[in-house]
Amino acid sequence: MNSIIEKYMLLVEKISNTTKAHKSFGTDVNIYRSEIHIIQLIGDRGEVFISEIARLIGVTKGTVSQIVSRLEAKGLAEKSVDKNNNTRQLVCLTIKGMTAYQTHVNYHLRKHQEMECFLVSLNAENRMVLEKFLTTAHEMIEDHQ
Question: What is d(CA 91, CA 102) in angstroms, rounded to the nearest whole number?
Answer without folding.
Answer: 17
